[in-house]
Write a sequence for this structure.
């Protein structure tokens, strides 16, 4: 009796697939929760160690990220970036982030150390740098801002999952929200401690997969999709293939930059899926039979355009024009979950209209407050 209550009786293939989908989304949300529990512990521990003057990715390659505010980072002023690889600190090999942190924990800000670097042209250099404290403005820009924006997505995804977990659009939004949460919450780890690199690499194309499915089923299922239910899985199949292509490149010591090309393919896929979602909202806005569906599509189109289009443009532009990433590009992202949660739940629970509108308002005010504080800190750092 207890078992039948916990695991519902499934009458047909559709119900079995629905139960399997719901279970997988639940597990994915648990993984995202794990990231949000562990990431701050990792980040604070990393911030307690001296900073060498550049971010180092999982193959110990410096990336092209620069200071968000205040003084330029030491290694960036010396011209080091993507293509240069950190090998040693004061003669001690640092093959990974854990070894690097162990060596740096023996020093304090202001100490001078020699870095052994292999440059992009294959030359070995010994570089003298003065260790520094990771600046407050950069802590806000690269950790606190993405983390709390991602938390908004994670809460939104959990909320929709609790209410609409048995619907395709509800699960698709939860997957999208959890993926964006992992993307944001794991961003600082990607640059520093590399604990969630594999999960982060899987989340990037899954953002696109979730949006593709959401565009097909929200606010109303199109007739074409109704007769082809397999289409809902198409985006996830592509995302899985992209991840399978990425995984062998992540820790390839012989070709330490190979993962960049694999990531770029995921960026382009998710960027194109954002454009697809926007086009589907335009289609639903003009072609949906229900006035409610047309209104939902209109609000979703507005929220997604403002929140996601700039990030999608960067994802494609980073591949074509080598655009540099700025964490302040993420500020507008808070608008999307607020608009989607309001749309998905609004016509199910009319009594939630006032609550959801206030949640959207408070979310916007929180984003403006964080942005103002970040700009203030950046300005003060320039003065001081």
């Amino acid at each position: 009796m207890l078992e039948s209550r916990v695991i519902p009786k499934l009458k047909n293939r559709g119900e079995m697939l629905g139960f399997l989908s719901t279970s997988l989304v639940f597990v994915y949300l648990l993984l995202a929760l794990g990231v949000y529990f562990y990431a701050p512990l990792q980040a604070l521990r990393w911030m307690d160690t001296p900073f060498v003057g550049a971010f180092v990715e999982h193959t110990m390659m410096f990336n092209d990220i620069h200071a968000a505010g205040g003084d330029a980072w030491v290694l960036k002023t010396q011209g080091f970036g993507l293509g240069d690889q950190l090998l040693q600190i004061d003669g001690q090999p640092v093959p990974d982030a854990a070894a690097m942190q162990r060596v740096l924990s023996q020093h304090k800000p202001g100490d001078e150390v020699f870095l052994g670097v292999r440059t992009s042209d294959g030359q070995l250099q010994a570089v003298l740098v003065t260790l520094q404290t990771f600046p407050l403005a950069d802590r806000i820009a690269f950790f606190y801002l993405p983390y709390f924006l991602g938390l908004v997505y994670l809460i939104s995804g959990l909320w929709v999952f609790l209410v609409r977990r048995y619907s395709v659009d509800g699960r698709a939004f939860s997957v999208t929200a959890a993926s964006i949460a992992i993307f944001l919450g794991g961003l600082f780890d990607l640059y520093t401690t590399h604990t969630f690199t594999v999960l982060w690499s899987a989340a990037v194309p899954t953002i696109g997969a979730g949006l593709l499915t959401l565009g097909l089923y929200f606010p109303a299922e199109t007739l074409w999709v109704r007769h082809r239910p397999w289409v809902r899985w198409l985006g996830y199949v592509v995302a899985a293939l992209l991840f399978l292509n990425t995984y062998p490149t992540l820790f390839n010591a012989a070709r330490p930059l190979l993962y960049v090309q694999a990531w770029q393919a995921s960026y382009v896929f998710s960027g194109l899926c954002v454009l697809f979602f926007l086009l589907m909202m335009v289609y639903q806005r003009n072609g949906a039979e229900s006035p409610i569906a047309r209104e939902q599509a209109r609000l979703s189109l507005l929220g997604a355009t403002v929140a996601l289009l700039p990030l999608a443009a960067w994802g494609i532009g980073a591949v074509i024009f080598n655009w540099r990433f700025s964490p302040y590009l993420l500020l507008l992202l808070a608008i999307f979950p607020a608009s989607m949660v309001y749309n998905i739940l609004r016509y199910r629970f009319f009594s939630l209209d006032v609550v959801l509108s206030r949640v959207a308002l408070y979310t916007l005010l929180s984003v403006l407050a964080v942005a103002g504080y970040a700009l203030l800190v950046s300005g003060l750092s320039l003065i001081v």
Q: What stands out?
A: Residues 180 and 207 are 6 Å apart (CA to CA). Confidence is low (pLDDT under 50) at residues 1-6, 349-356, 373-384.
